[in-house]
Amino acid sequence: MTDSEVLSQNEMDALIDGVADGEIEADTGIALPAGMVSNYDFAHPAHKLNSRLPVLDVINEQLAKYLASSLSASLHQQIEVTPSEPDFEKYQDYAHSLPEAVSISQFKLDPLQGNALLTIYGDLIFMMVDSFFGGAGTVEEAKAAREFTPTELRHIEHTREAVFDSLVKAWSSVIQLQPVFQGVLSSSQVTSPANPADVVVTSKFEIKLASGKSECHVVIPFSMLEPLRPQLTNDLQKMREHDAEWLQAFSQQIMDCELELSGVIAESQMTLDQLLKLKPGDFIPLGQSQTVSFSSENIPLFDATVGISNGLVSASLSQWHQSPNHFSQKGGRTL
To answer: pTM for this structure?
Structure first.
């Protein structure tokens, strides 16, 4: 539909007023005779475009967290992944919305029937490669299609594996999925599918690097998710309860983790000449007992006063650097 075929607001208001005043006759359009029915295409029902799968929103949030963690570890920088609300659209509309520079992988999600797609934008791939090799990660927006280099293909593969692994974890509370990579689609396969009117569920994820952001999409045919519709629409509260139970169990177990604490007990200054003259047995004056800042994994935790307790060098905790609510122990305890 072109812009010229769309009624303006004034035209719509005039049409409504005309019907209300009786100037325009209603119920004069083309309608089926009484007793007749219209065809309904069960293969492509329009109601799918207005569907809502609330549990899928939660799954995508979890997937984004897993994917951010995986990409951050591989690229050695903090990566943010933000999910958008899933789109329900015809495949042909989705395919025509894509830029030319993309990588589209086809894969199965056993035991579900059908094929899904993973779309990775070209500029995201280029930013990842540039960042991985120490560059600023800034690249011009990729508009024209071109062949990906071997290095770019390896990063596409790594990203695909990260998405697959995140999919398995995120969906585990609903169903145990097994992604199976089938191949990369050509541009003709993408724009000319066998069933262009099929409804797909598009989950879009914005991936933000230090230097920029781009997108990747997980595209699943609605028909693949149809058997799971009861779980994806009715079990949202149950899923949240499951997450709460998992979080509580995880919190209890993490309290038993051992942390390595480090702190500079004392500092002293001397000239280079004094340093070179030191011999075994020489004493270095350290001054009186002082406050020491202790940390773990370079995260400051608390201040403590160093002294002697029961014949051992000890530290008496004086104050936390963060709120005590973050920790199970309070100040005043000798470590």
So the answer is: 0.58
